[in-house]
Amino acid sequence: MLHTSDWHLGRSFHRVGLLAAQRAFIDHLVETVREQRVDAVLVAGDVYDRAVPPLTAVELFDEALHRLADLGVPTVMISGNHDSPRRLGVGAGLIERAGIHLRTAPAACGTPVLLADAHGDVAFYGLPYLEPALVREELGARRGSHAAVLEAAMDRVRADLATRPAGTRSVVLAHAFVAGGAESDSERDITVGGVAAVPAAVFDGVDYTALGHLHGAQTITDRVRYSGSPLAYSFSETDHRKTMWLIDLDAEGAVTAERLDCPVPRPLARIRGRLDDLLDDPRLERHEQAWVEATLTDAHRPQEPMARLARRFPHVVSLAFEPDRAPEDPLASYAQRLRGRTDRQITEDFVAHVRGGRGADEAEAAVLTTALDAVRLAGTETVREETR
């Protein structure tokens, strides 16, 4: 199986179009399927970058499906939190005849795609991104949390698997934030009630879980893995090695995994310092053809910094200012307090600030959390309305 996810077709990188790089990835994907004699392709969500993707992204997706179908290799694909399930799932029944299995409906998570090899059947269960407030009742979850709705979905998976012949192997595709995974700046927040992560134990009972959502390839357990995104979508991914997982499932369901590198359109570099130093430092020569994020530490903002940087680093795409300040400088301490903090932490800090140090009590913290969840959910419901 070739496990991939988070294509984010239609996304740009700091206003630089990535369509050519995404097309090169699709070329690489198809060639890998052919060379490695892959039996099934798994795409664990976020096929598109937004619910209503640009036409060029839809055309590339259509091209990818045709090329995979021409190879005669089954593809199992779920929707992620960036996708519109209704749009992505249009024509799923018809497309399935060509071996492309789109799983976008939460209610169908217990209905597998059955594929076979020399050792027997493998049941593939697709768990699309499950927004707790929208699917809790449909799945009969006990609580409105990510863990609860995923557990309810997995209960359906395990119940169906129990009806299958002995020796049937199983694979789950899911789009979620699993505890132990490392985040980056380019993933959309899916926190509910102040909690985003779910335990890996939710997926107990299946041979392999192909995860999507986090953009770094990583191993949660030997049987639970993120493929990560095939391209970098933020400078927080500068140190990522972009890969796909080639997964071998033997006759007993044991997993062997190999990382296969994806093509890199252009390396990323983060540079920091005074403008004159960045322009003169010979050690930065290796970054001159990279996409560059420059953070200037000059005490005063230099004249025309972007234009001057671009003369040495023609692909500089991001510029930030963080002047070196004394530790007692209030602006420095404020920036430090905000760095790396969640929306919930920032709002609670604000309450404490305006009340002279008295923070939110348990009831007030719950109100803040509910308000933040409502704002995030409002965006999700707007997307759903647009896609009806």
Automatic annotation (TrEMBL):
UniProt cross-references to CDD domains, sorted A to Z: MPP_Mre11_N
Stored InterPro entries: Calcineurin-like_PHP, DNA_Repair-Maintenance_Comp, Metallo-depent_PP-like, Mre11_N, SbcD, SbcD_C
Any single Pfam family the record assigns to this protein: SbcD_C
One Gene Ontology biological process: DNA recombination
Keyword flag Nuclease: yes
Domain named Calcineurin-like phosphoesterase: residues: 2-215
Domain Nuclease SbcCD subunit D C-terminal: 265-353
GO MF annotation terms: 3'-5' exonuclease activity; endonuclease activity
Keywords: DNA recombination, DNA replication, Endonuclease, Exonuclease, Hydrolase, Nuclease
Keyword DNA damage: no
Assembly description: Heterodimer of SbcC and SbcD.
Family: Belongs to the SbcD family.
Entry function: SbcCD cleaves DNA hairpin structures. These structures can inhibit DNA replication and are intermediates in certain DNA recombination reactions. The complex acts as a 3'->5' double strand exonuclease that can open hairpins. It also has a 5' single-strand endonuclease activity.
Protein name: Nuclease SbcCD subunit D
Organism of derivation: Streptomyces netropsis (Streptoverticillium netropsis)
Gene assigned in the entry: sbcD
